[in-house]
């Protein structure tokens, strides 16, 4: 049995992008529909992979274009 496809993410880059956009974690959680705790785990590196659904939700909330 194989694991579902996930995206490897760089938590430091997520934090940098969020802070550069002037978005606090609480607002990012609301915009993306992801929990504050989940986002914190991503940013601190304790979680390094995301499902495609969550990845797609996070990108526009960060105004990511690249």
Give a quick account of the main beta sheet: strands, pairing sense, barrel closure.
2 strands, antiparallel
Distance between the termini: 33 Å
Instruction: Provide the CATH architecture.
Output: Orthogonal Bundle
Which strand order does the major sheet show? Answer: 1-2
Identify the overall geometry: globular
Short recap of the structure:
The protein has 66 residues and is mainly alpha-helical. The protein contains 4 helices and 2 strands; from the N terminus they run E-H-H-H-E-H.
How would you explain this protein's 3D organization?
The chain is mainly alpha-helical and 66 residues long. It has a single domain, classed as lambda repressor-like DNA-binding domains (434 Repressor (Amino-terminal Domain)), CATH 1.10.260.40. Helices cover 56% and strands 6% of the residues. The chain has a two-stranded antiparallel ribbon. 9% of the residues are buried. The model has no long low-confidence stretch (mean pLDDT 92).
